[in-house]
């Protein structure tokens, strides 16, 4: 058993009444740990006082040659799904936090082709089908009742 024993291995050793220390590597025993620290550790002196052979001092050691990864580098980290935040915005009034089905705000007024909500998404009158009014405020309601 050269590695840390698992629970099922320990159970098998106990079932056969074997000594666990005979199956473990010497690396994991207390005696090995105490032997490793029994030798005194001497501090290293200043590198300027070291005596080095001349063939080693004349060697020039450069940084390893490395290549950049191909392609454009990423601009930032990938955001995980749980970190993504989306804000709903109403297509009727344009305000965030709700959808058009639950909207109680007055509709936006289109001020041009790029501003506001497209006409096909705006609410229309159920009588005259024009934008900006409803069945209760329709001027044509009296003509349709007759």
Automatic annotation (TrEMBL):
<dbReference type="InterPro" id="IPR036875">
    <property type="entry name" value="Znf_CCHC_sf"/>
</dbReference>
<keyword id="KW-0862">Zinc</keyword>
<feature type="compositionally biased region" description="Basic residues">
    <location>
        <begin position="92"/>
        <end position="101"/>
    </location>
</feature>
<feature type="region of interest" description="Disordered">
    <location>
        <begin position="68"/>
        <end position="117"/>
    </location>
</feature>
<keyword id="KW-0479">Metal-binding</keyword>
<dbReference type="InterPro" id="IPR001878">
    <property type="entry name" value="Znf_CCHC"/>
</dbReference>
<protein>
    <recommendedName>
        <fullName>CCHC-type domain-containing protein</fullName>
    </recommendedName>
</protein>
<dbReference type="GO" id="GO:0003676">
    <property type="term" value="F:nucleic acid binding"/>
</dbReference>
<feature type="domain" description="CCHC-type">
    <location>
        <begin position="90"/>
        <end position="105"/>
    </location>
</feature>
<dbReference type="Pfam" id="PF00098">
    <property type="entry name" value="zf-CCHC"/>
</dbReference>
<dbReference type="GO" id="GO:0008270">
    <property type="term" value="F:zinc ion binding"/>
</dbReference>
<keyword id="KW-0863">Zinc-finger</keyword>
